[in-house]
Specification:
Number of domains: 1
Oligomer: single chain
Order of helices and strands: HHHH
Strand content: under 5%
Largest sheet: none
Structural class: mainly alpha
Length: about 100
């Protein structure tokens, strides 16, 4: 009788430990989900680091190169020098909507 209760208790403990391993906190499924999330975050970090490097180069160029400043003004803010004529080409798809 005592041996049988001992075996039942061991079986229950084994079942609980297996439940924890497969379903509970720190389970294999959760570990895989966290690994996937880590992989996505590392890709995002690499993308952002690349973008930061591009921006740092742009800032450096703007600080030292007058042509870079002019290019920035022209591309982002529509800067036109005195004596130049601004021409805007509108694609046909936009013309039909207006």
């Amino acid at each position: 009788m005592l041996g049988r209760l001992f075996l039942i208790a061991l079986a229950v403990l084994l079942g609980l430990s297996q439940y924890q391993l497969w379903v509970g906190t720190g389970s294999l499924a959760e570990l895989q989900r966290l690994r996937d999330e880590l992989g996505r975050q590392e890709l995002e970090n690499a993308r952002l680091a690349s973008r930061n490097a591009e921006l740092a180069k742009e800032v450096s160029a703007i600080k030292t190169d007058a042509q870079a400043i002019e290019e920035l003004l022209r591309s982002r803010f529509g800067y036109v020098r005195e004596g130049e004529t601004f021409v805007r080409l509108i694609p046909k798809a936009e013309q039909s909507n207006e």
